[in-house]
Amino acid sequence: MWALVILPAPMLVAQLLLDQLGADPIDKLERLTGHWALRFLIASLAVTPLMRLTGWGWLVAQRRFLGLAAFFWAIGHLSVYTVLDWFFDWQEITKDILKHLYITVGMTAFVLMVPLALTSTKASIKRLGGVRWNRLHSLVYVSVIAGCLHFFWAVKKDVTEPLIYAGIAMVLLAFRVVWQPPARR
User: Fold this and answer.
1) What is the pLDDT of residue 26?
2) 19-75, pLDDT tens digit by residue?
3) Residues of 84-99 as b/e, b for ≥16 C-beta within 10 angstroms?
4) Distance CA 48, CA 92 (A)
5) What residue stretches are annotated with the Ferric oxidoreductase domain (predicted)?
6) Which end of the chain is more exposed for a tag (fewer CB within 10 A), N or C?
7) CB 150 within 8 A of CB 174
8) Residue burial 100-133, b: 16+ Cβ < 10 Å; e: rest
9) Could you tell me which residues come within 8 angstroms of residue 61 by beta carbon, excluding any fewer than 6 positions away?
10) What are phi and psi of 21, to 5 degrees?
11) Domain boundaries, the chain
C-alpha cells in the first residue's frame, strides 16, 4: 500500500525536473496531485462495500490509510496551488477562491478532510466515542462529492474523466444507502 501511495510522488518530481509536464508544468502538477487525492479518497470509500461483499475485516485499516493518503495528496494539490501557482499571495488566493466556484468547492472538500485526518487515530475514536466519531467521519461523503464537483467544474473541455470519477463515487455512496448491514444479534 505504501508503494501505491508514494510511488506517484517521485514520478511527478522526476517529470517536473526532466521538463516532461508539458507547456504549463505547474498546471499539470496541480491537476495530477488533485487526481491522486480524489483517487485515494474514492478508494477509501470503496473499502466498506468491498468489506461487506467479501467479509474481509482486515480492510478497515486500509480505509484509514487510503483516507490519509487522500488527505496528504490534497495537501500536495493545495501546496502546488498556493506555493507554485500563487507564490503565497494570500490576497490573490482569497480573491481566486471567492471568484471561482470550482475553487471554492475544492477548498471546501479540503477543509472537510482536515478534521477527518486529525481524528483518524484509535485514540480519537475512543475519545469521541464511536457514534460521534462515525457522525464526524460522514463528512467524507460531502468531501468526495465536493471533490468530484471541483474536478468537473475545473475541466474546460472534455468532462469524461471527471464524470467517470463522479460515477464511481456515486455508485459507492449509493451502495451505502441500498445495502444496510445485517442487524447484530
Assistant:
1) 94
2) 999 999 999 999 999 999 999 999 999 999 999 999 998 998 899 999 999 999 999
3) ebeeeeeeebeebbee
4) 40
5) 33-148
6) C
7) no
8) eeebbbbbbbbebbeebbebbeeeeeeeeeeeeb
9) none
10) -105, 15
11) 2-178
pLDDT higher than threshold 90 for residue 149 = yes
Q: How far apart are CA 81 and CA 172, in angstroms?
A: 29
Say if CB 33 and CB 80 are below 8 A apart: yes
Q: Residue 24 — left, alpha, or beta (φ > 0 → left; ψ -120 to 50 → alpha)?
A: beta
Alpha helices in the chain (DSSP H): 2-6, 8-17, 25-54, 59-79, 90-99, 101-118, 122-128, 130-137, 139-154, 160-178
**Cell numbers linked to 116:** 477527518
